[in-house]
Prior knowledge:
By secondary structure, the protein is mainly α.
Amino acid sequence: MFNRTLLSRTRWLLIAPVLAAVVAFATAQPPRNDDGPPPDGQAVFRHDTFGDEAFWTDHLKVNAVIEGAVDPVTALKLGLKVDADALPDGLLGSLTPDQLADPQTTLALLKLDAVVGVKGTVEAGDDGKLHLTRVGITCALCHSTVDNSVAAGIGHRLDGWPNRDLDPGAIIATSPAVGDDAKKVYRSWGPGRYDPRFNIDGLSTPVLIPPAYGLAGVKLATYTGDGDISYWNNYVAVTQMGGQGVFIDKRIGVKVVRTPDLVQPVLKPLRDYQFELETPAPPAGSFDPVAATAGKALFHGAARCATCHSGEHFTDANRKVLHAPAETGMDPAYAQRSAAGKYRTTPLRALWQHAPYFHDGSAKTLADVVEHYDTVLRLRLTDRQKADLVEYLKSL
């Protein structure tokens, strides 16, 4: 899908008036004050690339890929989201099918800072077209989505919600700097999955993009309990996003030093903002409250769920307890590549919102989760008990 040629001059003449209006709107927006006080956590989460443009532009050359072949329709198919609040009134309704098939429209959206999690430097060239000279990504790329209030993939931001439509591997595989063998691996992951260790050890066991809400009070923030939320934010910003910073962990043999460090100074406000992101409540009518009450008694009783999913955050990781994969019947492959070598008990929050489940998405539904543990832990629950337990999980 990325081998399209640029649109003809005739098509450009058709789209030029709309793009001119978009550029004028974007240019009129007040610039960010980089000389002012330190940005708050929301600004870091949504807009800070940590200087990763050097990786995405100079190395991967994704700016050229976007400019040449990624029109809005393609971008939405890749799981990218559009922030409707960043758009001028009436813009979307004025776009024609030809404009939606033109990468120039994508560049116009980037100039408006309307593509969630993607930051671009867009300039008008002497040829009358827009050109993407620099591009980088932010935390929001994977850990925000939109409410689809305007159209599928277009709406108001939902920070902290995992973007399970996003296909990071397919995006990286568009780079001309990536070899054919690596492209095959990246393309094998699929939407909503990413392997944050593939570029470290060359192995591939992709995990689900997790939610970034409901983390206040949770002491270990990764599937494998390697560290707290700032540890993981630093790891991802430096080793995965390609940001300019320092990350060193002898346990996994990683040492990356890029100075001056643009990551460390913003880790605290980033963490504080993530702690503010509350768990979204289940939609009205989405679970049976009577069955959920019975399921809660099972959760804390016969089903033994609360043995590990303990406390107000539903995880014994707060007591620094980790589990060998065999304890819960999990595939050990990902844990074996981590510093801990074990899995953390994942806090239970907004389970209704982010199926599938387990670190690798191997449980498609909450019923599959219950069935898995009934088998592994030999609980011998009845069908009614399993159903009640599912209703309680849907209520969390």
